[in-house]
Batch of 2 targets.
Target 1
Amino acid sequence: MPANKKYLTNSNTQRFAKISAGILGGYLVTIALHLALATWLPRPEVLITSTYSGFIMWVVLMILPFLAKNGWKVWGIYILLLFAFALAIYFGKSLNPLSQ
Amino acid sequence: MNNRDYNVLFNLHTVSGIVISVGLFVIFFAGSFSFFRDEIVNWERNEATANSQGMHIDFDEALDSIQKNYNLNGRDIQISKTFDERRVNVSLGASKDTLATEENKAGAYFYLDPLTYKSYSYIKSYTLGEFLYRLHFFAQIYYPVGYYLSGFVALFFLFAIVTGVLVHWDKIVSNFYVFRPWAKLKTLWTDAHTGLGMIGLPFQFVYAVTGAFFMLQILLVAPSVFTIYDGDQAQLYEDLEFTDKPVAFKNNPLESNFSINELVSKTKEKWNGFEVSEVHIFNYGDKNMHVAVEGALGYDNQLTAPGKAIYKISPQLLVFEKDPAKQASYLDQVKNLLYRLHYGDYGGYLLKIASFILGIISCLVIVSGVMIWLVARDKKNMPEKKRKFNNAVVRIYLAICLSMFPVTALAFIAVKIYPNEGQSFIYSFYFISWLLFSTFLFLKKNLRFMTCFCLILGGILAIFIPLLDGFVSGNWVWSILLKPESNLYVVDLLWLLIAITSLFAAYKSAKMNTAKNFL
């Protein structure tokens, strides 16, 4: 019994949206979150944690778009998250500069 | 779980699984043998090692012998041991003296036998052990394509594991006790897939995560370097304590004498049970010469705490130390645990054998998954063309996967008969016989024949491996078993075990076939 086709995505644009949101969007959100944390928390510890948490989080974010009805909506949420993390990185970097 | 989510996840699991299946099989099969990489290398060369974590060599003699071919002044020199082989790795940096000759401005990398002081290039040192080890991350494919390819296979393997667990979640406990080999073919494959998948789940999860990290770390490093470190990659590696701060070259010859052996034994006296895995000399023969002695306590004492002492030569001072007996920092714990967990080298042969078996079980999970994919689509209501196509796909997949077993056994025989032939011999022997075997099996058009052929041929060849070791190298299994300090018997015993298992499996499956005749 292969998966029942009636539950799967049929439109090509939706399929593209979901796959791209999962692989590319998931990657960007994962990296942005870890970088944002690294600018506010102890840097080496956060970066070394990302060696395992990064790949696990990426895979989870890869699965989520397929459970959603609309792949573009997931892209929207991912982009909002990216903006939030980018702000956190920007302020984190200027408030906690690299100490030499 | 509602029906829609179940079917969506099921489809994701199927698609990701079938796409990576052959690559993942190669990774797990070659990877399982990689647990015994060092034993295989020693077995090929017939060089027994002390079977210890650290280096036990005369560093001063070694440097003298290297000095015969290279002018060492002003260079950074690394002598290290990454594998449990007799030969150690030597890496020479370019001379930092601005007036050095062109010859001295080039670095070098080679292997040094600390008993004979002969040096070997990488290509000449190439072994089947190294070949199988590198095959498990596709290093034979043009660099870095193979590395990234295997990294993405690991990543999508993690994807298949997570979706697989979610699909199976509702029946995860009850189905574990179900095995219906005689009900019908589909349930045989399904029960094998879910049962063995559950047994191997923690193992596979760890290998998927660590494997993805090893091969795809660039995806983590690059964004950190460009956003946080403003392009300064060296700063990142220093932050994570992967590299030492560079030591300035003074361009002033060193006047006092020095002995590396003395520094090594000084370090060993300081920390009881310290095993030295690397000696790093900065600015050889310069006034500002430093020597770093690195290593760890035995893994049975301390799993994740490396130790390190850096000495300045003139005047002799201890400028830095990191006590291995102290509680490891979080940074060290993560860094070392990722490697220890993946290499499985901290628990002796029991752990290696268990890891080997779990690796082969993972191969079975992959094959049974491919079989489910085929059987589920092999229905009367499917168009004939589609069914033929599916069948051909599975035949290609299984021909490539299963032929690895006899081909690997044959390669062990080949390197025993023609040892020290180097890289090109092993490459051409392995890849050409792999191509021939898989083409032959694909053309036979019979999955049952394919399985039996590989099990029986692989099993018979496997028996010859320990026999040949006796004839060629004089290492009969019983005689080397009397010398437990040598680890040469490990490969022979491993192949005996494999031979018995595969012939038993072939016998059982033939008996079942005549009784039920259901393929």
Target 2
Amino acid sequence: MDQLFINLLNGLSSGLLLFMLSSGLTLIFSMMGVLNFAHASFYMVGAYVAYSLVGVVGFWPALLLAPLLVGLLGAGFERVALRRVHKFGHVPELLITFGLSYVILELVQLIWGRTAVPFTPPEALQGSAFTLITAPGQGMSFVLGKAAPELCTAALCSTFPMTRAFMMLVALLMLLGLWLLLTRTRVGLVIQAALTHPEMVEALGHNVPRVLMLVFGSGCALAALAGVIGGITFVTEPNMAIIVGSIIFVVVVVGGIGSLAGAFVGSLVIGLLQTLPLTVDASLASALTAMGMTVTPDTPGYPVLRLALKDVAQILPYLLMVLILIFRPKGLLGTRED
Amino acid sequence: MSQAKEFHFKPLNVGRWFIWGLFALMLFVAPRIWTSGLAQTMLTQMGIGIIACLAYNILLGQGGMLSFGHAIYSGMGAFLAIHALNMAGAGTLGLPVSLIPLVGGLAGLVFAALLGYVSTKKAGTPFAMITLGIGELVFALALMLPEFSGGEGGVSSNRVIGQAVLGITFGPQIQVYYLVAIYCFICTAAMFALTRTPLGRMLNAVRDNPERVEFVGYDTHWVRFMAFTISGFFAGIAGGLGAINTEIVNGEVMHASRSGAYLLFTFLGGATFFFGPIIGAVLMVICGVLLSELTKAWLLYLGLIFLFMVMYAPGGFASLILMNLRVAAFGKLSKLWTSYLALAGTALAALVGAATMIEMVYHRQLNEALGPELRFMGATLNSAGVDAWFGASFLVVVGVALFELVRRQYVHEWGEVQEDIEKEIKRREAL
């Protein structure tokens, strides 16, 4: 029971991290029609830049500075390269971000090396956020921080790491901030208007290309913020972009392309789907056995039946995507039919 | 009533026969010109790459569909082909080695028909995301079934099976090359023929104006689906040939990086022209075999070239060649060649400077234990010293500045030449 609760929280925090990435992707896509293939690369750059900054200014300023720097890089890329190919159509726009992802990966390896860098969380974020103690016969109790070792000798302790709690906190704050920015401020109003009526907004005297540059830059900054947190929670290595890269596209397709709410729901669903099955040892073979059938290695399709749920957890999001495409092509909360 | 026989004027298309004849001749003599073992391996890979890139271009160039997961169809072709080869070797499948690639092609066709129905539901950006996801799905799934994919080690086989027919055992590389060459020629011809069929024309229409195609009464989803399955078939043939060539197939053939390579090189070659991917495939093998030997940073150079190509020449190398051929055909190339020389010289200077810096950084990253000295282009550089860095950055700055100056002059001249050509065309029309 306690393990299930911890798993649930792990899944939610992974989902919220995915949301930090997919929100920027969705924002850029719905504003500019550009699918930023290099989005996960900016996530990686965020982690590496923060790693380098930590040594100079400390963790907390780096948490703020790294996204700003990466946002500037993103805005610069939009200004120099993306805007130039905009007139060629959507496929070249996709291609140029695809090329960028190659270049960024190689540059990161050039600057920081091909192996993982030791990017550790600061003092305040090390250790566990809380501990669940299940003593036999006493039910469950809850201790903030790390439980005293004498408690854990007699009972079962499950801990939830501080970095994951921090991840959830930042993602929720970001969600709130994004919502306030888009719906309650003048800038948000212009962004929303530029989304649907770019010509009208331009006629009213707003610089729409600059708004787009701002949106692209902020999307990249959000990815970098996620990168800093992902970097301290997981491993900061050149592979980290590829690991999340294809998953965030799945999130966007499942949630509904171009829908921010859809991206939120999609992220949580995918996060849980990636995490929860990891502890389940059951397979189709064991399910059939439980239903009273005999399954032996000679049964047709045994190689598939044998696979345990925990082994196939990594492909479940992709399966969900295919199912969504067949039965609800516009995604869970999507509105676009095309 | 007898109908008068209509007269059709159909002259022999000399140009086309000449080009196809030349292509066949090149395929035939290439291994006789480059006879080393490495060259023959590379030529075989080029033949396979040509089929794969042309198949990919049915989607990218002719259908406007940007697929990020096309390697799964060539990969499935490779896996099924190697299993068929093993079965043929064991005597349970009566199929000669020369027909094994067709097994791969059928596998590609079947998987493309299965997965393509979902993939082609949407076009444009969603299509790209969906193919990426399905590519990951199939790749991960294949690795989970070691009975099928052989796990980490892959599936190996032996292509020398049964009795030799006319002395052909497919043991020597040269025999495999000619098998690949024959498949390459037939597939290229078939794919070119496809562009001339109503389906091929409809596919172009779906790329350019899907809404209008719907109004005319065609189902865009169906047209995309047909093109996708045909592309999968040819990709599968390429995979099957690859399986015969290497005699081992592992999960890498389905990896996303393979799909990325198809996309990258098809675009670099020129997606808007039929023959563009052929240039791309040749480049793919040269880069993968030779450039990767030369420098560890080759993907960085490749990525940068790709970025500049997307920005400045979206038609790839094929468009650059054709544009200059047009200039040459009007006899204006003599006006431009000095600019080309200057452009090449300044670009080379900047490139050498940048490459020196990149190589020095890589050297510091990877071979620090060997000391700060490295050999680059025949010179010994001290990657820890200031002078090498200063010299390289000086070269970059000067090269880039001069390049920009020459480029402005060149753009001006290019515009003038194009105007002259337009005038010349108008004048000829008026005659």
